[in-house]
Amino acid sequence: MKSILVYDTTLRDGSQGEKINFSAEDQLRITKRLDAMGIHYVEGGWPGSNPRDVQFFELAKKVSFKHTCLAAFGSTRRPKTSTGEDKSIMALLEAETPAVTIFGKSWDLHVKKVLVTTLKENLKMICDSVAYLHSRDREIIYDAEHFFDGYKNNPNYAVKTIGAAIAGGADVIVLCDTNGGTMPFEVEEIMDKVCPKIPVKVGIHAHNDCGLAVANTLAAVRAGAVMVQGTVNGYGERCGNADLTSVIPNLQLKMGLSCMTNKNLHRLTELSRYVSEVANMTPFNGRPFVGKSAFAHKGGIHVNAIMKTPKAYEHIEPETIGNERRVLVSDLCGKSNVDYKAGELGIELGGRGFDGKKISKEIKRLEHEGYQFDAGEGSFELLLKKLTGQFKPLFELESFRVAVEKEKDLPCRAYATIKISVGDQQEITAAEGNGPVGALDNALRKALNKFFRVNLEKMHLVDFKVRVIDGRDGTSARVKVFIDSRDQKRVWSTIGVSTDIIEASWQALEDSFQYKLSHT
Questions:
Q1: Are strands 41-45 and 5-8 parallel, antiparallel or unpaired?
Q2: Do 437 and 502 contact (CB within 8 A), yes or no?
């Protein structure tokens, strides 16, 4: 099986994405995880551009990576400057990485309008910079920035820039679609013409401005590229970079090319979620291969089919990349959805006369009232147990009272008093919070801590959403409240529906705690 080199630039290109800001420690943690995944190259950052990247490379010097070759990233020397005196070039050497990735201009527009220098000087800048770094025993990866735009505008000059990098001793030439505007067929056509002229390894670096970064990467591999550059989850400037969580499984599972071991491929979903957590970015459920919804089935006909043969509606087995099949329940579901979910959850149907067909009918009724069980699977599990007589509440609400106080020039404060029963014992507590739901959460947790403190220590709410079901009734409209909660092992979602936002919030909050305690 032909091997493809995977080059990760999450720490540099990915960090340029909006709302993403890694610390040096974050960068090191991600690098260690990428190393454990067997990623061939990790671009650590641009040591000449900011103190954070300088700190990262200092931290990285103390780490011995098993599989990954660390690369420092930078630009060619400045126009009319000696290479040995260029601060950016010196910073690349001071990073002490075994590989250096250096970019230069391939598009004559950039040479004339951005660098404001001559085409001849740009060629010297490329050759001098590569040669200088190559003479210092570094593996040199040359990123031909804006190559495809440059080739379409002035093909002869674009090819000359590559020739200058090769003359300087570049080990890999990476052709970049920096603006992300090239079509896959153009990538393949241009590379078919250019690759025969390149005596070293060729790579591809694609941006996603037309939604084609993955497609362009795959097209480039078909045309001869043996290195693919991208980021985990496609993070990056503007619309992002080629998403390695799609590129890798497409290459390996669809095109029969080796990027990593099957064992590491099984951990791809885990990697995606880990990086999103470190980046403090909400995972995109619809992300191909690794998204939570990538193998989620909602329609009854679909579910009936996958129960017989999963490949009827799945292009690969989800376990191959560490994901899982999910069956959703909603007003579109049928008996098959309920039967599948009950089996998945280990719940026996038929209790109190509620089989899959009758439960499906009840779900449709509740969803018509505003419930949405595909977004509140924790509440759905509790509903199944309640309908079939298999649910025993760990606590019961006797009453609660919520008050909100507003003083001039001060933020609102909320206060909640709650009375619950646990077995034959009752507990009354009061608490305050930043809002009525926060106060209720604090009061309930305070009351439950008397009975279940150890079980609740690691549980916390991570998201709270309110949706109006039908706004035509104005402030009297029914609302649904979604609460996402998590502990060290799992994340679960619950839902409440009412014309009163506090009552709907309580329903979702109560379900969240009941779910947690029932799984302890």
A1: parallel
A2: yes
Residue 140: C-alpha distances to residues 69, 337, 451, 515 (Å): 12, 54, 62, 54
* Residue 167 DSSP SS3: helix
Separation between Cα atoms, residue 286 and residue 266, nearest integer Å: 19
Q: What single-letter DSSP state applies at residue 43?
A: E
Q: Kindly state the average pLDDT of the residues 332-354.
A: 83
Domains in the chain: ranges and CATH = 5-260 (3.20.20.70), 296-380 (no CATH), 392-457 (3.30.160.740)
HSE-up of residue 280 (Cα within 13 Å, Cβ side): 8
Spatial separation of the C-alpha atoms in residues 267 and 36, rounded to whole Å = 10
| Residues 368-387 as b or e (16 or more Cβ within 10 Å = b) | eebbbbbbbbbbbbbbbbeb
Q: Give the whole-angstrom CA distance, residue 99 versus residue 288.
A: 31
Q: Nearest Cα to 319, choosing from 393, 268, 247?
A: 268
Rounded to the nearest 5 degrees, what angle is found at the Cα of 493, between the Cα atoms of 323 and 394?
120
Confidence check: pLDDT of 474 > 70: no
The answer for residues whose C-beta is within 8 angstroms of residue 80's C-beta and 6 or more apart is 117, 121
Cα–Cα distance between 151 and 56 in angstroms, integer?
35
The angle subtended at Cα 394 by Cα 393 and Cα 400, nearest 5°, is: 85
Q: Which long-range contacts (CB under 8 A, 24 or more apart) does 187-194 make?
A: 187/148, 187/216, 187/219, 187/220, 187/223, 188/219, 188/220, 188/222, 188/223, 190/148, 190/151, 190/152, 191/219, 191/220, 191/223, 191/224, 191/225, 192/223, 192/224, 194/151, 194/159, 194/162
Q: What is the pTM of this model?
A: 0.78
Neighbours of 282 (CB within 10 A): 11
- Are the C-beta atoms of 262 and 40 separated by less than 8 Å? no
Exposure of 145 by Cβ count < 10 A (0-12 exposed, 13-18 middle, 19+ buried)?
buried
212-252: pLDDT as tens digits: 999 999 999 999 999 999 999 999 999 999 999 999 999 99
Residues in the chain: 520
SS3 content of the chain, % helix, strand, coil (to 5): 45, 20, 35
- Phi first, then psi: what are they for 246, rounded to 5°? -105, -40
- Whether 117 shows a pLDDT value over 90: the answer reads yes
- Please return the burial class of 454, using the count of CB atoms within 10 Å of its CB with bins 0-12, 13-18 and 19+: exposed
Partners of 279 in the β-ladder: none
- CA neighbor of 456 nearest in space, from 448, 467, 464: 448
